[in-house]
Amino acid sequence: MNKPLGITVSRHILDSQRLHPQATGELSGLLGELIVAAKTISAEVNMAGLADILGQSGRVNVQGEKVQKLDELANSTFKRRMARCGYLCVMASEEEDEIIPVAEGYEGKYTLAFDPLDGSSNIDVNVSIGTIFSIHRRRSGSGQGNVADLLQKGRNQVAAGYIIYGSSTMLVYTTGEGVHGFTLDPSVGEFYLSHPDIMMPTKSKYYSVNEGNHRYWSEGMRRYIEYVKEEDKATHRPYSARYIGSMVADLHRNLISGGIFLYPRDSKDPAKPAGKLRLLYEAAPFAFIVEQAGGRAITDDGHEILDIEPSDLHQRVPLVIGGRKDVEVAEAFLAGKR
Ligand code: P6P
In a 10 Å sphere around its CB, with 0-12 CB exposed, 13-18 middle and 19+ buried, how is residue 28 labelled? Predict the structure, then answer.
């Protein structure tokens, strides 16, 4: 008896496309090119310890963060491949101050914002890291895109996803029709459907936050974190703390097992009054994914992440994201209502 054929991500994308007779196949083509870039980065990440691409490159990026060699490799891999994919008009990267043009003659109708390797400070200690991407339809007419094509609210995203380079490499993405996870079989170089229709538990058992920032939080945030440490009336247990310091790893675990992740504004760094995480290529793509999985994503003053009109490519936002019920309780504490 033949083993059932695994559903490859390419097959899954085409099946989704077939549901839309008006589809031109361009989004499918774009996602296909993204997947090739992801496989390339996965191979590099898995070899990092051996191929002398660990450690720091000596550069500092637009965020003022030391750029790891693998960061640069991931960024250039994405830029080179996607600039000539023929489906994009403009790109933005966490590693680049300004917008990234596509190759002349290869302009398309979508935009791409990406964090090539989030959590890169964990590279040298072999902790899971990831790539995050967000796709919009261009607003401008034709030719090279512009910053206005990128500065669209998350609610308008056409697709969003991440690749997590961990014990296995997984791709998780949504095009607005549910969230689906694929695991890379390195022996054949294919992503196979392993987590169809991911739905997030509305109430969970994990909370993810950097408690080292406790003294810099608002009173409401401090009270919420005290609350999750009390015995839950139903389970008679407090939440468990789970914080890796790699957003893709933390949010992937919470998406699959349930959990709330918080990175609120804090008074620690006057240069980052809105917290640390970036809207365009971190909070907005994850908010799209989590909402599609039945969860919710807000700022620490109750604004829906997906409704924020971006004003800057690298704009930071406070983020509270997770199961719907968990986020509602956190929202009440943060608003001083509990
Ligand atoms: P902290 C990694 O640098 C990152 O941008 C996210 O991946 C992660 O969630 C966060 O920063 C960790 O920040 O301040 O807790 O070390």
Answer: middle
